[in-house]
């Protein structure tokens, strides 16, 4: 109910909406409307109430809870079920558990902070409270496990487009799935899978996105290579719910496209958004360092590196300089 009330109030941000109209649209009494409005005020919303005109939101706190996200979503599946937690070890762990217990496709787990945020290659993911978006999404595509990496690339496209739509800031992808602004990392994606030998049961896509951190919020060693959307916007912050809802919307669009038409268009879009492609780069893998021209990616997201001797090296996992 609260998300539908927020939706009504948000859709009429510049104009008033009467208590009567809210009560009719939501099918609840005027007293119930008033109680919900008081509850919103307790949660940090500021609302103007004018006799005979109604209510108008004048300040929305930066909350990334289920009500705020749902109030902005018009999706068919993504985010229909949102589990919001103040603190978790990792949203990936919670989502895995939910997926094992049959959670529906599109379920999102979002947390204010993670005690043990996980990055790629078993790295730690710094997840301070209240400034970023730390969330995991459950998908259940009917595909073979080998296709799962395509969903990581699909997500990178969706996150990049979602950021640009919600903030107007230009973002790019660095292979395999870092999202960069001005050459600094602002988001990362971690894809994990539950599967049988020939069928995926669930894909858990974890997305970590730095949104409102200021410089002092970053550990010193990260400042040269990491950034937040606010830092790239002269310190002015964003509503995290605007950003996550834009991303979920894009994931849904591309995911439905993927299920119907496959990966071809997504790969093209990925390559057009990728900063890595067409550049001379150095890939540091677990076993060696290879330099060459990044030519593109394969259907599975493997990076094709053309070396000076003319041969092409397939890079499966590496850090890129
Ligand atoms: C990377 O190394 O770039 C991937 C980082 C992914 C971090 C996100 S935050 C939400 C989800 N929960 C985790 O523990 N990790 C992912």
From TrEMBL:
Q: Which keywords has UniProt assigned to this entry?
A: ATP-binding, Biotin, DNA-binding, Ligase, Nucleotide-binding, Repressor, Transcription, Transcription regulation
The family database entries (PROSITE patterns) matched by this protein are listed as:
BPL_LPL_CATALYTIC
Q: What is this protein called?
A: Bifunctional ligase/repressor BirA
Identify the NCBIfam families for this entry. Answer: birA_ligase (TIGR00121)
Q: Which residues does the record give as biotin binding sites?
A: 114, 185
User: What function is annotated for this protein?
Assistant: Acts both as a biotin--[acetyl-CoA-carboxylase] ligase and a repressor.
Q: Name one GO molecular function term.
A: DNA binding
| One Pfam assignment | BPL_C
Q: Which GO terms describe its biological process?
A: protein lipoylation; regulation of DNA-templated transcription
Which residue numbers delimit the DNA-binding region? 19-38
Give the UniProt family note. Answer: Belongs to the biotin--protein ligase family.
What's its catalytic activity?
biotin + L-lysyl-[protein] + ATP = N(6)-biotinyl-L-lysyl-[protein] + AMP + diphosphate + H(+)
Recorded hits in Gene3D superfamilies, A to Z, give: 2.30.30.100, Bira Bifunctional Protein, Domain 2, Winged helix-like DNA-binding domain superfamily/Winged helix DNA-binding domain
Signal peptide start and end residues? none
For the BPL/LPL catalytic domain, which residue ranges apply?
67-259
Task: Tell me which InterPro entries the record gives.
Answer: aa-tRNA-synth_II/BPL/LPL, ArsR-like_HTH, Bifunct_BirA, Biotin_CoA_COase_ligase, BPL_C, BPL_LPL_catalytic, HTH_11, Transcriptional_repressor_C
Identify the EC number(s): 6.3.4.15
State the gene name recorded for this protein: birA
Q: Which GO terms describe its cellular component?
A: cytoplasm
Show the PANTHER family listed in the entry: BIOTIN PROTEIN LIGASE, BIOTIN--PROTEIN LIGASE
């Amino acid at each position: 109910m609260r998300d539908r009330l927020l939706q009504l109030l948000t859709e009429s941000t510049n104009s008033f909406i009467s208590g009567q109209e809210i009560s009719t649209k939501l099918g609840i009494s005027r007293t119930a409307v008033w109680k919900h409005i008081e509850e919103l005020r307790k949660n940090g919303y500021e609302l103007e109430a004018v006799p005979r005109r109604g209510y108008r939101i004048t300040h929305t706190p930066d909350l990334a809870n289920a009500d705020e996200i749902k109030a902005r979503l018009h999706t068919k599946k993504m985010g229909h079920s949102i589990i919001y937690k103040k603190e978790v070890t990792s949203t990936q762990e919670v989502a895995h558990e939910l997926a094992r217990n049959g959670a529906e496709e599109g379920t999102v787990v979002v947390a204010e902070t993670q005690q043990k945020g996980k990055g790629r290659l078993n790295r730690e993911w710094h997840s301070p409270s209240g400034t970023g978006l730390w969330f995991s999404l459950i998908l259940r595509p009917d595909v073979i496990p080998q296709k799962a990496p395509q969903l990581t690339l699909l997500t990178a496209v969706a996150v990049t487009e979602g950021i640009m739509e919600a903030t107007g800031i230009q973002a790019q992808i660095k292979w395999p799935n870092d999202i960069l602004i001005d050459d600094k990392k602002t988001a990362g994606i971690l894809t994990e899978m539950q599967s049988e030998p020939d069928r995926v049961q669930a894909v858990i896509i974890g997305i970590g996105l730095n949104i409102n951190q200021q410089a002092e919020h970053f550990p010193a060693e990260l400042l040269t290579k990491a950034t937040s959307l606010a830092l790239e916007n002269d310190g002015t912050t964003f509503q995290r719910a605007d950003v996550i809802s834009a991303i979920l919307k894009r994931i849904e669009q591309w995911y439905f496209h993927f299920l119907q038409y496959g990966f071809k268009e997504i790969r093209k879009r990925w390559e057009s958004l990728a900063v890595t492609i067409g550049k001379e780069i150095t890939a540091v893998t677990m076993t060696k360092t290879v330099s060459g021209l990044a030519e593109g990616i394969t259907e599975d997201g493997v990076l094709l590196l053309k070396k000076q001797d003319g041969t092409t090296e397939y890079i499966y996992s590496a850090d890129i300089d």
